[in-house]
Amino acid sequence: MYAHVLSVDRAALVRSVNALPSLPAVVIELMALVHQQHANLEPVAHTLALDQALSAKVLRLANSPFYGVPGRIDSIRDGVQMLGMRQLSNLVLAASLTLEFEKRYGSTLHMRNFWRHSIGCAIAARHVAAHTGHDTSAAFTAGLLHDIGRLVADSQYPDAMAEAQEWALAQDIPTAAAEEAMLGIGHAELGAMVAQHWHFTHDVTHAIAHHHQPPSATQATLADVVHAANALTHALDLAGTPTEAVPEQDRSAWQRLNISDVRLQTLFAEVEAEFAELMARLQPA
Fold first, then answer.
1. Angle between helix 187-197 and helix 136-145 axes, rounded to 10 deg
2. Are the C-beta atoms of 156 and 200 separated by less than 8 Å?
3. Distance CA 214, CA 224 (A)
4. What is the pTM of this model?
5. Which of 147-151, 174-178, 208-212, 214-218 has the lowest mean pLDDT?
6. What DSSP string describes 5-29?
7. 107-285 domain in CATH 3.40.50.10490?
8. What is the pLDDT of residues 146-182, one digit of tens each?
């Protein structure tokens, strides 16, 4: 056990979460509409069209061959009609957070690695969810945000987070365990606070909170999905970090997911291919 607990103000971290800006209006509208059977999509298309940077990035994503209509979507209205609400909500969330992170944190190597891993985990979670019958939109969101607490802690206490990561590497232990031991709070707990602040569903918040240690359950949960997706993303080294390693895995979670070896190999190929395409389209035009 690490004897030196770093001086981190837990209350200050909580305040930093509460001080985060609200999600863009179009994301909030989409979250409210995505599960409605007879939603009026006109306000969403209008709101999204007003944000030129966001709408341009969404259109680039929407015209990816992975979404079935390459080169055929010329307007936000077409995107709403052809992609559907759930698919569109995934792309809008990814695009809006990309723009927000670029604005707040720049394009440093650290930020690049963080965002590459987040996008990879979102894609992997959506594919695992499709295999297990879970909500693919919720899985994408939870995968995208699963490490958001790490970004919050790093922005407030960069030296402490760096020391925790160095100690984890030196001791060959999970970074999450080092955070708990040294900082007194882990990024999963902080991430769940962010999800609550942004009013995501209980399932998404729960999955973020428990993506390293999914609770026991009688059947697979969204936390199991994100747990597996995180492992897949690390195994593929999508972040491109020199010290990449797959975190400790919960065997019960994998048993509940019941993914065969053959299907797992297919998942690796699918995630890697879609990741390359999505990252290319998320880059500045």
1. 120
2. no
3. 6
4. 0.84
5. 174-178
6. -----HHHHHHHHHTSPPPPHHHHH
7. no
8. 998 888 888 777 888 888 888 888 888 888 888 888 7
What are the extents of the domains in the chain?
23-105, 107-285
Question: What DSSP state is assigned to residue 65?
Answer: G
Helix (H) or strand (E) holding 247, with range, is none
H helix or E strand, kind and range, residue 99: helix 85-105
Rounded to whole angstroms, what are the CA distances from 21 to 25, 100, 104, 118? 11, 10, 11, 20
Token reading at 267: 């998942």
Q: Which amino acid is at 46?
A: H
* C-alpha pair distances (Å), 112 with each of 2, 98, 117, 176, 237: 30, 10, 9, 20, 13
pLDDT at residue 2 tops 60: no
The answer to whether 220 touches 44, Cβ cutoff 8 Å, is no
Q: Give mean pLDDT, residues 61-90.
A: 74
Maximum pairwise Cα distance, the chain: 59
* CA nearest neighbour of 9 among 184, 144, 170, 127: 184
